[in-house]
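Hi L., both proteins are below.
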Amino acid sequence: MMLAIATLGFIKIISSIVGLTKSRKLHSPAITFIKSLNVIDGLMAIIVTQYAILSTESSHNASESTGLFGMGLGSVIILIGLILIIYVHKQKKAS
């Protein structure tokens, strides 16, 4: 069951990344923002799945390792946000 949930999480991430790259062709900051929120949602689902798996296995370091993984993904989320801000800024300059 846990593998099925993890697989669905990775499929969610992959489909949201594909949707994000396809939405860039529309040149709409609002749609790009919504699609990037889908990517962030998929990343958070993976964090929750990791914590559930580690807790089920009675791992003593489940909280610490999930926290570190969450901080890493948080950095990715910040990077996505900065790229989105730069993208919107370039779109405003171009128009």
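That was the first. Here is the second:
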Amino acid sequence: MPSLEDQDEQVALFCGLLPRLRRMHRGPVGAAKRLVIDRAVRAARAGEPIGEYLSELGLLRPSQPPPAGDARSTTLPPAVADAGPRSVPGAHVCPRGVCARREPRRVDEEVPVCEVFDLALRFDAES
């Protein structure tokens, strides 16, 4: 059984990748993977371990922590320092506090969404 810290990281990874996973497994060919995705969502909502489902989806090797780094990929250039309006430092975090997902606050972008609970991430300002 994964430790709570590993579980938090696994839920954060899954939450960040959930929209992409759903897009990848649309249609008749993705039916089996969609079942795994749905089971993982139900387990995450219930606070149960999801490592087994991540392994089935090819996101996690059995008994190993999830890969480090940002789960989102982008083709946008990096932000230019000191350009545009200043923002309050902080990050968007899990709305239910069940995972370790942290999304940086980005100017002129929509608030990120927790796909597991279907809620907007909560903003946590840095003190």
